[in-house]
Amino acid sequence: MKIAIVGYGGMGSYHAAQLAAYAASGPEYPLELAGVYDTDPARVAAAQKAGLYAYPSPEALWRDKSLGAVLIATPNDVHAPYAAAAAAAGKHIVSEKPVALSCAEAEEMYAAAERAGVLFEVHQNRRWDDDFLTVRALAANGSIGGVYKYESRVVGGNGIPGDWRKKKAQGGGMMLDWGVHLIDQMLLAVPSPVQSLYCTYSYIYGEEVEDGCDLLVRFENGVEYRIVVATDCFRRLPRWMVYGTEGTATVEDWDLTGGVTRCVEREDKNLVGVRAGNGFTRTMAQRSNASVEQLPLPVVHAEPFAFYKNFAAAAAGKEPPAVRKEQVLRVFRLMEAAARSAAENKVIRDKL
Ligand SMILES: NC(=O)c1ccc[n+]([C@@H]2O[C@H](COP(=O)([O-])OP(=O)(O)OC[C@H]3O[C@@H](n4cnc5c(N)ncnc54)[C@H](O)[C@@H]3O)[C@@H](O)[C@H]2O)c1
């Protein structure tokens, strides 16, 4: 199947390189990059320099009968109109995340695709991130007992990048940028309805959109999950902390440094109190070496090209899409509840 990319910016050019590598891997369901469309002449020139065909207009994409699919990698506010036009032209669709600016808009996009009988799949690619898969394996293998708390954190010190990401009307802000990924991961990791949530947004840089967010979610099964997105932090913080009844794990970064500390002796017989600031503590002293064991992370590497493989197979009717409509809409409902919590400074108790 031939596919074209709409929006050849940072992510569009990443997709072009990934699609070339996917094609070179000799896949069972191939995807061939037919070309790109971008409104910026500089990006058109960059595409041509990279040897790609540049469609002269969106209409040229819709008219191209050899084209089976389009991948929308524009700023967030124009995902919906491109998806509607692509569906009307009978093309299967990949939309970058966040699929839309609101849950209602996302529902309309799915409805348009359903009416046209085309596949519509959102690129929630961080489901296949090695750090997330490793955390899931850790929770599943029981080495730290029952997981009761997760901290999922991404921090940078560069403010909000680019221009459209700073504009509300274009779907800017860090909730739609990173929150959407971390919430998607959370809802896969915790198989339970949400009981309540509380969220704060930060505006350290004085932009019209949030430059960070801090979301605390409590699930009905008792699990607590905290998501932190920051663009004002100049120090590295762990990407993940995972707390279990029998141990604690840290995943420091996307390179999967970190480890697992597992309790082997519930009561530490060799516990020694320590001086702490202007006082003394046994409660906050480190565990003795004999009472815990240090384990490596159960590292998992994702299957290469997992998303593209699934999209191509789903378009051929051979597999269900991995990123499903009800999952995408649930993420959106949760983001909208978080935005309400942040705006009104209150705990939201919607069952999500
Ligand atoms: N899934 C991921 O890991 C990931 C990572 C980064 C970005 N994204 C998503 O990808 C999309 C693009 O982000 P980016 O970082 O590449 O932004 P970007 O600004 O680098 O690129 C956007 C491109 O779209 C073009 N464009 C703007 N309006 C257009 C229009 N109406 N028609 C056609 N082209 C248009 C711009 O000229 C630019 O080349 C966003 O939805 C973003 O959320 C996803």
Could you please describe the fold and organization of this structure?
- The protein has helices at residues 10-24, 41-49, 58-63, 79-88, 103-116, 130-141, 174-189, 306-315, 325-344, and strands at 2-6, 32-37, 67-72, 92-96, 120-123, 147-155, 194-202, 212-219, 224-230, 240-244, 247-251, 258-263, 274-276, 279-281, 292-295.
- The strands form three sheets. An eight-stranded mixed β-sheet has the order 7-8-9-6-10-11-12-15.
- The longest helix is centred in the last third of the chain and has 20 residues, at 325-344.
- The chain is built from nine helices and 15 strands.
- The protein has two domains: 2-123, Rossmann fold (3-Layer(aba) Sandwich), CATH 3.40.50.720; 127-302 and 333-344, 2-Layer Sandwich (Dihydrodipicolinate Reductase, domain 2), CATH 3.30.360.
- With 352 residues, it is of the alpha/beta class.
- Helix 4 (79-88) runs parallel beside helix 5, helix 5 (103-116) runs antiparallel to helix 9 (325-344) and helix 7 packs across helix 9.
- Residues 6-12, 37-40, 43, 73-76, 78, 96-97, 123, 125, 162, 164, 177 line the site of nicotinamide-adenine-dinucleotide.
